[in-house]
Amino acid sequence: MDKKETFENLLKTAELYRTQGLYREAREAYQSALELINTLDQTENRDTVLLDLEEKIKALGAAEDHIESAPSSHELPDDVQNLIKNLFSFSEQKDPDTKALSEAVTLAKFGQLERAIEELSGLLDKRSVGIVAAKNIIRCHVLLSAYDNALDTYKQWESEKKFSPKALAGIRRLLENLLIKKGVQAPFPKITIEEGKEKPSRNTAGQKPEEMLDIGSVLVNFDQGPLKGKPVEFDVNFQTGNTVSLLIESKEKKLFDTLDVGFRLKEVQYRSSVAIFRGTGVISAKIMIHEGPKQGNYHVDIKVQDH
Questions:
Q1: How far apart are CA 278 and CA 280, in angstroms?
Q2: Which end of the chain is more exposed for a tag (fewer CB within 10 A), N or C?
């Protein structure tokens, strides 16, 4: 293997460690890549790559320090929240609005729900991500048990005609289902808008974010690992397009360890309020949560796919 291939493999290894919350291992792999790049004769955008590597090494070092001393308080300091956004936002999109959406949802996964609501609110007027941001705001309010806030927020969007009738109907249906799961009764009028009805589509992986069905839970039949042969249902905490995020409790560490990035779930039932469809899924990201109220638990992202 030549030096260029070694360099590229080090970057891939570092990214894999980073997605799994292995800060020290990721930092060491980036450091090796930094040392190796100085021996390469020609490297495209050399100065930019060097700066990027140095910033990642610095951020990962800071993350290690925070792990040692961070309290498990509800709201983390701003600098720690910013660090979380930078380290654990896995969006590969260059579009700034899509990147901002990914960062806000990342904060929510770590239990920084109030900051997430603030940042998601700034995206409501963005055409490409506004509806997805709105739905995740609703999810954040419900996770905070702020049911009145969730209802008031929806009613404000409805009175302002913030979104199309179809989009508002979808947001309302999501809110209704989340409240039902919590045992909360809300005074919603019956949906009568025909265009507000969501129609299930088999082309889930190729849909635009606002067209994707809101998935409330997934039922996975594992064909290997500690839960082999046992169907397990997980609630969906967050969703962006065709990617759903599940919270796995700390007691299920053995399960978390088997769900490596790229692992394919061969038999999955995706359950929404209007349809249940079968498909597969690919683990697109996994996070071991070291800080905040979710400390000790795990988040796993599944990219929804058809058979």
A1: 7
A2: N
| Cα first-last separation, the chain | 36
The pLDDT value given to residue 50 = 84
Could you tell me if 284 and 244 are in contact, meaning their C-beta atoms sit under 8 angstroms apart? no
Question: Could you say which DSSP state residue 274 is in?
Answer: S
DSSP 36-56: HHTT-S--TTHHHHHHHHHHH
Q: Cα(164)–Cα(198) distance, rounded to whole angstroms?
A: 13
Summarised one tens digit per residue, pLDDT across range 27-54 is: 888 888 888 887 776 666 777 888 888 8
Does residue 244 contact residue 304 with C-beta atoms inside 8 Å?
yes
Residue type for position 262: G
State how far the alpha carbon of 98 is from the alpha carbons of 48, 92, 104, 124, 134, in Å. 23, 9, 10, 12, 14
For 9-42, b/e burial (b = at least 16 CB within 10 A) is: ebbebbbbbbbbbbbebbbbbbbbbbeebeeeee
Query: Looking at residues 100-122, what average pLDDT do you find?
Result: 90
Residue 120 has pLDDT above 90, yes or no: yes
pLDDT in tens, 177-218: 898 888 887 666 554 444 444 444 433 333 344 456 889 899
The rounded distance, in Å, linking the Cα atoms of 10 and 5 is 9
Single out the residue of 148, 217, 138 nearest to residue 184, CA to CA. 148
Integer CA distances (angstroms), 241 to 34, 214, 272, in order: 35, 9, 14
CA distances from 54 to 26, 37, 40, 59, 188 (A): 13, 12, 17, 9, 53
Quick one: which of 283, 236, 279 has its CA closest to 259?
A: 283
